[in-house]
Amino acid sequence: MAKVSINTLLSRAEQQFSLGKYDSALTTYGLLLKEYPTHGAAKIGAFLCDIGMESAEEAQALFDYYQIIKSEEGDAEEVMSNLISTLDTTKDQLNTLLTPNEERIEYEDGIRYEDFLTFIDQRGDFARAFEDVMFSTKVVLKGQEEYIDFITQLIDKGYDELAEQFLDSMSSAFGKNQEIYALYHKLKKA
Description:
Layout: H1 6-18, H2 22-35, H3 40-54, H4 56-72, H5 76-106, E1 110-112, H6 113-123, H7 126-136, E2 138-140, H8 143-156, H9 160-170, H10 178-189
């Protein structure tokens, strides 16, 4: 099989990238790297495609910057590699710093559902634990499973009116979920 022209693949990849077709561009850069594993522009292009799948604006800005410095500087690939590496490191550090804060802020005015379940175990009685928690804080439900479990417990413990209010307020968020319909059915039987 004849090797594909470097310039043809590179031009195709850059055109795909410019159009925002990052998956296609990544495939083309990948073909180029398969034939020419040390090709600097292909490596940069593949990195930029990866960035483009998360943030098109950021990737396009970096791509434009790369096009400018390619004609002006002899070590454009090295400059871009360092820049991308710095961006990745900074993003990782920001994610590490922000994740605990997001969680802390989210639970600042309430407790996690798993903590609420632990509190029920400690109190030995759902009704007592529920009343203690409801008068002092709120239970933060994350995801459909916790929501369904919480509503089920409310129904099982006789808090039918409250269970119905929760169901009515959140059922549209879960669409046509059969488990939500089953909870309404269970509530009617209670």
